[in-house]
Amino acid sequence: MKGHEPAMRPPFPPSPERSAELRRRFAEEARSERPDLAALCLLLGAEADGALDEAGIDAAQIELDTLAGQLPFRPGGPRSWAVSLRELLGDRCGFHGSAADYQRLESSLLHEVLVRRRGLPILLSVVWMEVARRAGAPVYGVALPGHFVVGFGPPQEQVLADPFDGGRVLAGADAELLVAGATGGSLEPSMLVPAETLDVVQRILNNVRAWAATRPERSDVGLWAVELALLLPSHPARLRYERAQLLVQRGDFVEGAGELEAYAGVVAAVDEAAAGRLRQQARAARARLN
């Protein structure tokens, strides 16, 4: 895969049969003992882009293997690993991000990020993590509020790098500035712990849902992102309400109403008034069939 900017093409969805198979594999991988981050991201990408077939998924995995093979063998401690990744992925290969990348769905799809060498902080961090992991680095994701980065080494020797900024190795105050810029708050030690694989995937899906939410004409993207999130072993119950709303928005009033009623059954245990409002929404959805 060469780092160039291809002409934009609107992705088309996979066939219903292909989508069902992708979702089965996604759910199976998410529930495995050690979920594979790259595999989950590529299955997510195939759900978004019907052009990503099995050969394309294999090519993306091979690209990650190839990049890992270009790293020096065991360069040293955490800082040496961070510098080696920056020199390879940031300096030589040109992986980085910019403000414009937040406007593109491709910035959340791993196979597109590997081609374009551009993406959101969390997807560029996935590239860093997967390449570094294959090379034997002590690497993990760090889910700072509003800006995902990567970490190397144990807590007492932790070194952070920002793939969105080409892999810049962060000085002590840099992470504090990133958090302050995103939230106005201060950096807490709990923010520096390694992110779990499924939490990374959930955050990617949250980004896709946020992208779709500002584009009503792309409710199809919002729907598949919600439905993949519902396949994760742990997810917010409110996602069912979001799915119901999207179904109604897309004109599937019967299934949307059924989902609203099912969610009302969950809510009723803690808030009967809210459950009543949900049942009213379900009746209103069904009324739109007449």
UniProtKB/TrEMBL annotation:
Any coiled-coil regions, as ranges: none
Pfam families in UniProt: TPR_9, Transglut_core2
Protein SirB1 N-terminal domain mapped to chain residues: 63-206
InterPro entries on file: SirB1_N
Region (Disordered): 1-27
Ranges annotated as biased composition (Basic and acidic residues): 18-27
Family: Belongs to the UPF0162 family.
UniProt name for this protein: Protein SirB1 N-terminal domain-containing protein
Record lineage: Bacteria, Bacillati, Actinomycetota, Actinomycetes, Kitasatosporales
